[in-house]
Amino acid sequence: MAQELRSINLVAPAFKGVNTEDSPLAQDPSFADIADNAVIDKRGRIAARKGFEVITTSTTPLDSNPITVIHEFESASGSTEILSAGNSKLFKGTTTLTDITPGGYAINNNNWKVVNFNNKAYFFQRDQQPVVYDGGASAVLLSTVSGAAGITSAIYGNEVLSAFGRLWVADVNGDKSTVYWSDLLIGHDFAGGTSGSINLDKVWPDGYDEIVALSAHNGLLIIFGRHSIVVYQGAEAPATMTLADTINGIGCVDRDTVQYTGTDVIFLSHTGLRSFRRVIQEKSMPITSLSKTITKDIVALLQTETESFRSLYSPEENFYLITFAGQTTTYCFDTRGTLEDGSYRVTRWPSSIFKSYKRLQSGEVYIGTTHGISEYTGYRDNNDKYRFRYYSPSLTFGDAARVKFLKKIKPTIVGANNSTIFMKFAYDFNTVYRTTEFTTGSQIPAFYAVNEFGPNSVPLSEFTAGQLTNQVSLNAAGGGTSVVVGLESDIDGFQLSLQEINILALIGKVL
Amino acid sequence: MSNGLMGINPTLDFQRQMKNQGGIFQTLGSPAMASKPGAPASAGETGDSGTLTDALLGFLGDGGAQGLAGLGLLTSAYGRLGDIGQRGLGLGQELAQTQLEQAAFRPYTVTTATGGQFMAGPEGQYTMAVSPEEQAMRDQLFGGAGQFYQQAAMPTADREAEIFERMRTTMSPEEERQRLALEERLAAQGRLGVRTAQFGGAPEQFALAQAQEEARNRAMLGAMQQAQAEQAQQAALGQQYLMGSYLPQQQMLAALSPGQTAAAQAQQAQLYGTGLFGEATASGIDALLASGLGQANLMGAAGTGLLAGLFGGSGSGSGSNPVRDLIDYFRNR
After folding, report:
1. Which domain holds residue A444?
2. How many domains are contained in chain B?
3. CB contact under 8 A, B203 and A240
4. DSSP letter assigned to residue B185
């Protein structure tokens, strides 16, 4: 007698993102084992990320080197200008990169941090004299600014923060426990007025640490060490600011991992992504881990990263990106909400060539690559396709003891256009997947005054009413106690979202 | 004891002088008078022999003796007048010498109640000597004054530093407590490492340092003032000691004034007695000379009368002129 097929519906698969921490067998099917080049879209589905379109028309100034820093300079008049760095040069502009490197200034690294302060943009990086740009034809060395004082190697810090009406500089080679602040509203005066410094040697909660990053949040000056955090209040008057809190055991791995979300500060610690979540009534800041589902992956990347970190927070895209530049890996954390354990839903962007990010005031996201400055838009990476991958965790369908025989796999794909979808499945933790494929339907976007079938065609046009939804039924074979279902597709100009996967399986005997 | 000449009751010295003067006066009478060649001879020395004697007796009987007596008297009066002048000169010189000795300065000594002495020497030198106790006190005070002045003359820098250090020693514990309290407060606030261009360190550190520096400055100024006050005090003490060291001398000089007054009074009395002595002696001399002159005059008058009687008669005698009578006598024989 034929047994009844059991329908196992994976609704919005992987909408909780990747989880490599929990046991695959015990995982919620809403997690994913792999979610590459994916994001959580606005409907909570896993979807392909956007690609990037190169804006820069000539990469000659870069000489095949990437743009490692992108910054939007906002002048007091409200005008903006894109500044960037790469190939040991400083640039302005997007389509054309205009060299604004100070004359005779040798740049030996491209790990700048740029901040806007009092109608100027300040460039800081380790062991380099800071550079300031005021909208002129070229940037100038900070020491050459009229009235500059105290511009010595003592303030050639790797970290700079513009907050509380001052520039704050730290992470100076040979002096990693001192924070320097400039005179009020004078970013080139570190020796006069109300400028000063604070040495944290006697403040670190565990006796010693090194300053990595600075942040200002909710009237607090947050000083990130490698494995501890010190918080000062009243930084509007630095001479009298007082210690508000210290956090031991959690620090920041790199200054470029710190991002502001408006209500929180996100940073990457050596144990994963963290955030301050402030409880206003209690005036306390419990630390929340945002990457509990991929902690080991993060730690593994941290331990092997030698180049740089870059991060981005985009409220428009609702994600926080953290890129391990040396390992061409980017993790995308969806910031719209957290899971039950407080972590963000996370996806991975492998083989990432992204070297820098910048969210503009307009909401656009600029990406720095070897192609120059690009915009995060479209669904091609500089006109190249990229692979979207989803793999579920090992599914036991609630009964790990019985054998499952997959009969049908019915994915529901939203978007895509004439794309080949590869459905993959494997049993019992086997990494050799069985694959079946199908091609989605075509969807022709409507353009103004353009007929689908050419001029004067009959019928004139047949356009989709929004995104194309593909539901196919694919035959499956084989059996095992646990099943992994995957989906891969090249993203080549069109959005793709995985709405659901309905699996029809025959439940066998107990092994 | 009055000698019957001066009519006063002199002091012992004066009495002695009066006695001496009286001795002189007494020697003016008998010896001088006894040694005069014009004194009348005794009766045994006037005898005559023979005719001449008879003639002479006759002559003398006839008035010749009157003439000879008159002549002798005149001669004696003349010689006596010359002697009287010589004697007056000698007596005047003796009187001057005597008064010079009498009016000479007499050394005297004033002794105070505390044993100090002022001695006026015969040569006019004056010597003062305080008592040994006063001298010891004077030496002590004088030495102390020297020490005080020496200390007052020394630069005050060392003393200022010493006073300042003592003040700082007093202030330092509290300053250290304040510093530690601030250090703890700053440590609790995580601000130990604050360095500012405006204050150097944290504002509280600056305020504390400023307060401590102000206190230090005040202490320094106070030390300077104290050192100067002590310097002035040393000088004042030196002056007081110095003045005190001269106090025995001043007191002795003060005591000398009455002594000098007494001595002056004695001197004045001495001079007065000398004056009286001179006047009395001069009066005696004058009386002596006057009596001599009177005697001489009397003798001269008597001689003149005898001679006038000798040479005034006729014949064997005029009876009015003894000299002529005497001449006539010898012619007629």
Report:
1. 5-34+390-510
2. 1
3. yes
4. H
